[in-house]
Specification:
Number of strands: 2
Radius of gyration: 19 Å
Strand content: 5-15%
């Protein structure tokens, strides 16, 4: 398994090290790889980007859930449309969770 990493100046293994600050995290079985983002990523810009994306996802999710909660829509819409909207709502909910976790790691 190999990964191309740019701007890597130092690598070390640590057990129980300080997890504060923004990190990219790659979980594995029984381990995780944490890469500090400070100095590599403009954290303010990334927070703004992720916040904007989260707001967009929340808006679309609210609209879809409103439609799916409408018994008239579900009863009258073709089955394929309801299934498509349900699948999209599930995708958006997962994206919302991922973005919220990402924002939490940015501090």
């Amino acid at each position: 398994y190999s990964v191309q990493v740019e701007k890597l100046t130092n690598a070390s293994m640590a057990h129980g090290w300080d997890r504060s600050g923004a990190h990219a995290v790659l979980p594995g079985e029984g381990f995780e790889i944490r890469v500090p983002l400070e100095g590599i990523v403009d954290l303010a810009e990334e927070k703004a980007r992720a916040t904007k994306e989260l707001e967009k996802v929340e808006k679309e999710l609210t609209q879809l859930r409103g439609r799916l909660d409408n018994a008239n829509f579900v009863a009258r819409a073709p089955k394929e449309v309801v299934e498509k909207d349900t699948a999209r709502a599930n995708e958006l909910a997962a994206t919302k969770d991922r973005l919220a976790k990402h924002l939490a790691t940015l501090g």
